[in-house]
Amino acid sequence: MTFLILSVLTNTAIYLLFKWFDRVGIKIFEAIVANYLVAFSIGFFMIDEKSQTLATAFTFPLWSVVGFSLGVLFITIFYIMAITAQRVGVSVATIASKMSLALAVVLFAIFDPNEGMNITKGIAIMLAMGGVVFASIKNTGESIRWKDLAWPLIILIGGTVIDFSIAFFSSYPTNNDEMSLFGCLPFLTAAITGLTILMIHAIKKEYKPQMKNIGAGILLGVVNYGSIYFLIKTYNLNIWPKSIVLPLNNLSVVIVGAIAAVVLFREKLSTINYLGIVLSVAALAILLQF
After folding, report:
1. Which end of the chain is more exposed for a tag (fewer CB within 10 A), N or C?
2. Cα distance between residue 26 and residue 21, in whole Å
């Protein structure tokens, strides 16, 4: 339970940091790249047999292939999450990301013979989709602005792939060192992708490093690594099935994130926004029954 609580707190902290970065003028992309360098460094430091584990990874077992491949998706979705938290709101970004659970359940039903799909789960998924839409509408007196919905929906799809991949493949590493490396490999490829982009901009003289952005990225990297590490540890405790851990974690993050956004940043939610949160919580509560 301790690892689950730490996963919830670190996941929630990511969204709150994004909002805080906006208020203090942090350039998000530079901070995100620094964050991935830090997150990978922490994960790699925690590996006891570094040479042997790396040698195993570069024989490309399935867990390392998945780990390397997730990096580009990590940095893309992470950046979009930051933009969403700033433009639409922390609660919306949190819900859109965590509602990826709904589609992840479908993938579990397809790829895991121990998981099934039924009418009840179908209803829960529909509620989840409604929750994302209603939580994304900024003003009930206006028609839905599709540009406000686009960011959360992209997060939803990308988050589904990430959530499912981490949960499904977390049991593939054969020891703790491999598990630690699996958790930080996406950070490595995400960092390489981000550094490449920054170098291109630097060559064009469109980018100059700023220490405040790098410092913010270091803080974000510590929290981000914790969010993945604690979630993987929770999966591998085998106290609950993965299809239960995922909704339990996401439900808690949605609730804590929404409360924190209102309390810390005075975000104002409309009645329809609260309806979206209620639908989201209801969907996750239903899925918790399985």
Report:
1. N
2. 5
Model confidence pLDDT, tens digit, residues 123-150: 877 787 777 667 666 554 444 456 666 7
Q: Which alpha helices (H) appear in the chain, and where do they start and end? A: 2-24, 28-45, 50-57, 62-87, 90-98, 100-111, 119-136, 146-169, 176-203, 211-237, 242-265, 271-287
- The model's pLDDT over 55-90, given as tens digits with 9 standing for 90+, comes to 999 999 999 999 999 988 888 887 887 777 777 676
The 3-state secondary structure of 178-220, one letter per residue: HHHHHHHHHHHHHHHHHHHHHHHHHHCCCCCCCHHHHHHHHHH
Residue in the structure block whose two tokens are 């990430």: 162
**How far is residue 78's CA from residue 86's CA, in Å, rounded to a whole number?**
13
**Rounded distance between C-alpha atoms, residue 108 and residue 235, angstroms:** 14
Altogether, the residues listed in the chain come to a count of 290
Sign of the C-alpha dihedral, residues 121, 123, 129, 131?
negative
